[in-house]
Amino acid sequence: MPLNVPIILTWLRIAMIPLIVGLFYLPSKWLAVPMRDALAACAFIIAALTDWFDGWLARRWNQTSAFGAFLDPVADKLMVCAALLVLLGINRVDVFIALIIIGRELTISALREWMATLGARASVAVHRLGKFKAAAQMIAIPCLLYDRSLYGIDLGRVGGWLIIIAAVLTVWSMLYYMQRAWPVIREKSGQ
Question: Which fold has domain 5-189?
Fold first, then answer.
């Protein structure tokens, strides 16, 4: 396993997951709910920024690796799924939305793995729909974690709309990836 700054940032993102989740298990007498929500939102934002930064550094410093390419999306999916489960537990996201997003993450990860075994991983390479979906999620989740007004903007409402947009993009991108994979699946299964 290579160890460089981009991979360390990815591991840091994974390490922040228990911190974000753990904040919601602290007794309210230790940490007031508004402070808990603000800390969780800030921690999520920092983790999301490391996602962008580790990829940028890996490309800039030519430190890309197969392990980093594997670990980065795993870290993203773990972070998003953990945050959605926390939001579900505190009733800030609908179970249907969480199921759509988590189900898609599992499905597309499995599809990419299967396509790799068929030698056709490129047919389900990341598409801009997936990037838009990820951006909507990464903005919606801290808004929903904070769930208060900031500078007159109701972040809970903004996050609510963005998570719905993310769910729509989630389904759309999943259908896109499935459509791209279908000819390969049909060809390989006919052999």
Answer: Four Helix Bundle (Hemerythrin (Met), subunit A) (1.20.120)
